[in-house]
Amino acid sequence: MPVALYQAKAEFFRMLGHPVRIRVLELLQAGPTPVRDLLAALEVEPSSLSQQLAVLRRSGIVTATREGSTVVYALAGGDVADLLRSARRILTGLLADQNQLLAELRATAE
To answer: What does the DSSP assignment read for 2-55?
Structure first.
């Protein structure tokens, strides 16, 4: 069993495992975005955003370019957007199933 491969996959998903990082990736799906716009959309402290962006940069999942005094972030590739769309579909299905179970539970309790 290729343990290193599974370890690398686990670390990748751990890297995605923060709400601010997920939201940043979702925002970047619309295209390259200046840090000030990310800050406005996320309503987090600048130091917190900086820390989360550093994690995403180190992983290679986002890129940063400087345009004058502004730093602009972008997704490193389309695969990230595909992954987020897939996750959204999976989560939507799971939540729909949970809502159906909740409705059935409520119906049997009455």
So the answer is: -HHHHHHHHHHHHHH-SHHHHHHHHHHTTS-EEHHHHHHHH---HHHHHHHHHH
